[in-house]
Design goal:
heterodimer; A: 261 residues; alpha/beta; 8-stranded mixed β-sheet; 45% helix; B: 92 residues; alpha+beta; two-stranded antiparallel ribbon; 4 strands
């Protein structure tokens, strides 16, 4: 049975697109058929993060308006044949697509893919409404900062109102060195405040910047953030990857961080 | 020693958590300042029947408080109502 998952955050710049790219690639590495949809119309980004920007012919709006068939607009990943991207339109605006059209599109894609991941735009306007329209499940990305958490809380409320069955939290860009100093909220603090189930913690990792520069997702590599994304993918499939591991990892993160000081 | 410092000072992580808890309570309650003003006026009207209160000094806000029967915290309406004078009816 296929699943439609929206990756959202409210606030911009917390790592939705990076998360979508890495979770999508990670699921493909676990032999799942995955399609990524960039729903941020007018601010196309997922294509460059995936390194597929040169292959775009048609886009989401073309599909919705019937200018092409879905298959024509899907871009196959460089490494994983079962991973595809449906890019957003760069020259249109958010009102070009309606929630009903998005729901119809995701339902059609269910027939071919195991996982349909929607990269949601920042904000709570139409772009957000479009992205969540057909979703079964949501991953809320936040960083341990007041502004991101406040927006995440608002998003969680809206997801509840839309009766999204399962909403889980990813705490992104955690800096263990700062947590140890008491200058960053802990993962427990964030979970306590937002009161939803945690599915992953991704450390602040400069490898992410490098991988984005190169257009190759980090998941599957030995980098700390890459491992964190791989764990999130396993948990998405229902595997119990113990959070006990997290403490260990955090210790390693601290050591790593101290190396860079 | 670092650990001792950790417990002594209120570090910015805790400040962030406390500020967030506070702001989210009013976000979630979805209480606009106008609604709060109405609640405040109604409270003044009710209490004024029984005692003379300082309407200027009255302060109400929605905060988080420890729940009495379990360990979680619950939202609470906090009201600070300065009394100017109790009416004589209280001695009846």
């Amino acid at each position: 049975m296929s699943e439609v998952i929206v990756i959202t955050s409210g606030k911009g710049g917390v790592g939705k697109t990076t998360t979508t790219a890495n979770v999508g690639t990670g699921l493909a590495q676990l032999n799942k058929k995955v399609v990524l949809i960039d729903t941020d119309i007018g601010l196309r980004n997922l294509d460059v993060v995936m390194g597929l920007e040169n292959r775009i012919v048609y886009n989401l709006v073309d599909v919705v308006e019937g200018n092409c068939r879905i298959k024509q607009a899907l871009i196959k990943d460089k490494k994983y044949p079962d991973l595809a991207l449906l890019p957003s339109a760069q020259t249109r605006d958010k009102t070009s697509v309606t929630p009903e059209q998005m729901k119809k599109l995701t339902d059609e894609l269910r027939e071919e893919f195991d996982y349909i991941l929607l990269d949601c735009p920042a904000g709570i306007e139409q772009g957000f409404q479009n992205a969540i329209a057909g979703a079964d499940r949501a991953l809320v990305v936040t960083t341990p900062e007041v502004s991101a958490i406040r927006d995440a809380d608002r998003i969680i409320g809206l997801l509840e109102a839309h009766e999204i069955k399962q909403t889980q939290l990813i705490v992104n860009r955690l800096r263990m060195d700062m947590v140890k100093r008491g200058d960053m909220m802990t993962v427990d603090d964030v979970c306590e405040i937002l009161a939803i189930k945690l599915i992953g913690v991704v450390p602040d990792d400069e490898q992410i910047v490098i991988s984005t520069n190169q257009g190759e997702p980090l998941v599957g590599t030995d980098a700390m953030a890459g491992r964190a994304y791989a764990n999130i993918c396993k948990r998405l499939l229902g595997e119990e990857v113990p959070f006990l591991d997290l403490d260990k990892k955090e210790n390693v993160f601290t050591k790593l961080a101290s190396l860079f000081k | 020693m670092a650990l001792a410092d950790f417990f002594k000072k209120k570090n910015s992580g805790d400040v962030a958590k406390d500020r967030l808890k506070f702001v989210l309570v009013s976000d979630r309650a979805n209480c606009s300042p106008e609604v709060m003003e109405k609640i405040k006026n109604d409270i003044i009207n009710v209490i004024s029947k029984y005692m003379e209160i300082d309407a200027e000094g009255l302060d109400i806000q929605i905060t988080q408080t420890e729940s009495e029967n379990n360990n979680g915290s619950v939202p609470a309406l906090y009201a600070n109502i300065p009394i100017k004078e109790l009416h004589h009816s209280s001695g009846r």
